[in-house]
């Protein structure tokens, strides 16, 4: 039997993915979004980052991101359902662009944003040549798609659950920037400086996830990046 907590996760994943996949199946979107809650947040009311990208570009974006998903995830069943971010991408499919978020839960839930060197290296080494993220990006690039890896919000210089993750976030995103330098088809977009000091309006009540305002702005920024890089849009 499936333990109850796994059953709940499976139901949530299916509930979150099925309506959007069904609605967009006939439109054959050329942009895919995968990742964690940064991308999934506000999807239920069509206000996620992916929704903002779609609105800005005037084309559908398929959003497979799942809250709680990680880069490193060991449970096979729920991992296959998408809680392992690499499983949200399917090699047989073809897209022009794939937008990725991921790594935050690996730090917060995997190592508590303390003594995370081993976990970070497993995701992405300092020279950006090895790691699970390198493997995922390589898989995507082999299909011809270009990649945008999106960084994370920072807290507005006030108490929040993510304040202790700042050093890990900075180090991780420096590696992502290095990864992007190695391939003209890979882009890293930082939102580390998006939140003004003392401004709580870019976060939800939990001070972790983006507000609707932030999701809209981030989506517009990613869309602008895609437009600059892709003359066909």
Break the fold down into its secondary structure elements and pairings.
Blueprint: H1 4-24, E1 31-34, H2 37-40, H3 49-57, E2 61-63, H4 76-83, E3 97-100, H5 104-108, H6 117-123, H7 132-142, E4 146-150, H8 166-181, E5 186-189, H9 212-229
Parallel strand pairs: 1-2, 1-3, 3-4, 4-5
Helix pairs in contact: 1-4, 3-9
Signal peptide: 1-25
Keywords: Signal
Pfam families: Lipase_GDSL_2 (PF13472)
Architecture overview:
By secondary structure, this protein is of the alpha/beta class. The protein has one domain: Rossmann fold. It contains 9 helices and 5 strands; from the N terminus they run αβααβαβαααβαβα. It has a 5-stranded parallel beta sheet with strand order 2-1-3-4-5, sandwiched between helices. Helix 8 (166-181) links the parallel strand 4 and strand 5 (186-189). Helix 1 packs parallel to helix 4.
Strand content: 5-15%
Name of the top-level CATH class: Alpha Beta
Count, helices: 9
Helices and strands, in order, run as HEHHEHEHHHEHEH
Rg over alpha carbons: 17 Å
Largest sheet features: 5 strands, parallel
Output the CATH topology.
Rossmann fold
Averaged pLDDT: 90
Q: Which geometry do the CA atoms define? A: globular
Number of domains: 1
Number of strands: 5
Low-confidence stretches: 21-25
């Amino acid at each position: 039997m499936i333990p109850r907590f796994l059953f709940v996760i499976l139901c949530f994943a299916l509930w979150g993915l099925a309506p959007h996949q069904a609605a967009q199946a006939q439109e054959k979107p050329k942009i895919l979004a995968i990742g964690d809650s940064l991308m999934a947040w506000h999807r239920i009311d069509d206000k996620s980052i992916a929704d903002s990208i779609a609105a800005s570009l005037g084309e559908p974006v398929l959003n497979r991101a799942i809250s709680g998903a990680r880069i490193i995830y060991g449970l096979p069943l729920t991992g296959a359902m998408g809680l392992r971010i690499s499983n949200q991408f399917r090699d047989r499919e073809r897209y022009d662009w794939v937008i990725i978020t991921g790594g935050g839960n690996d730090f917060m839930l995997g190592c508590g944003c303390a003594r995370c060197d081993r976990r970070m290296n497993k995701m992405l080494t300092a020279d950006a040549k090895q790691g699970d993220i390198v493997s995922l990006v390589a898989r995507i690039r082999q299909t011809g798609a270009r990649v945008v890896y999106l960084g994370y919000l920072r807290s507005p210089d006030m108490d929040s659950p993510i304040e202790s993750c700042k050093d890990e976030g900075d180090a991780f995103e420096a590696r992502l920037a290095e990864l992007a330098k190695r391939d003209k088809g890979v882009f890293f977009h930082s939102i580390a400086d998006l939140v003004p000091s003392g401004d709580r309006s870019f976060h939800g009540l939990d001070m972790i996830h983006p507000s609707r305002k932030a999701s809209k702005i981030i989506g517009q920024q990613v869309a602008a990046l895609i437009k600059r890089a892709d003359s066909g849009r």
